[in-house]
Please model this.
Amino acid sequence: MSGELFAAVFCLGMFLGVFIIYLGLKQRSQQLEMHHRERMAMIEKGQIPLDEPSSHFHERSPIVSGAARSSRSLSIGIITVGLGLAIMTIISVAAEAPEVGIGVGGAIAILGGAFVARSLVVRPQTPPAASDDRL
Model:
């Protein structure tokens, strides 16, 4: 019974890990699409986008640093979930105590899930739009 429970939890953990990676990629795709739409809207209005690729390497805007924090939190969360699942596997197999392995590794995996949830909930704050006084 405990071996079946361990296998079920392990498989569930693997699928959750893949799902978390999918969510991270989806979030990044949405960010890139929104950035592209914003650039296209500025170009259609006749404005020059401020963050040209050449100037992007020289100075970092607050939007990029906020996005980096969210991405960093997502990365830490994914690594922590993987660490929790690895500890769960090691303790369950080596000590032949799946209940203890699920308890310890599951707690660490839940902590990683909290980091992932934080990265999805907390969005970077955009600075207020600067007015154009050249008219």
In short: Residues 2-30+61-121 form one domain.
